[in-house]
Fold:
Amino acid sequence: MLKPLVIASDLDGTLLAPNGALSERTRDALAAARADGVAVVAVTARTPYGVDMLPDLLPYLDGAVCANGAIVYDPVSGRIRILRSIRISQGRKVVAAIAKRLPDAVFAVETGTGIVGEEPYRALVGSSNWEFANTVDGVFKRAKRAVKIKVYCGERTGEEMAAAVEGADLGGLAMCHWGDFGMLDLNARGADKAFGLATWCKERRVGPDAVVAFGDMPNDVPMLAWAGRSYAMGDAHPEAVAAATARAATNAEDGVAQVIEGLLDSDTAAAA
Structure:
């Protein structure tokens, strides 16, 4: 296998260990890749402040694609560039349509620099970078800008939620779910991980054939399908497995690091 120019990886459930940290083996693999001229990009549903919550990872990143492709973030300079956002009026209509199908849902709006959620979210997430409102109307009034809408149902799986809203008028927004976890994410039309990663790569004259991508959930599917080589984690959702060109070991087994080590070893052997 030829050495890639870009390694693009989802974070939670993929690059990060099950405890949410970066293992020593993964740190070493990322450092070796960058020393060999390979760029490392985090491609995540997290927004920039969520990436900043991983200080051990930041030194190994050349960039980050956040909010499922709606934001490009430079962790070094702190520059946040919003590629696609949702009109507030459109967001209100979509949330109303979803609430009819999921009356037990609670909603939150990512703004790019923070998040505003309905009060029930407080017990789930604490308060870091969050504001809270008593109603959905209050959420949108506080948010003012939306790059992603989050929908949570504690008593349903993400797949059940997606099935419940099937056929509802989502105004063209892109939607993804989280398998067994009761969450839906909604982004602006055309905003997904493939779009955000392709934007980052195009600006550096890198095509999909030079990209190796890693992921584990349905929101990773566009990226896994776009990259020239892609790996679904060992315990990945079936939709991710179907989209990827190969499998990696689980994040508990440092699956991303294993693949990177193999790529670098293959390149060294080919050059010998």
Residues 255-271 form the longest helix (17 residues). The mean pLDDT is 94. The chain has two domains: 6-83+191-271, 88-187.
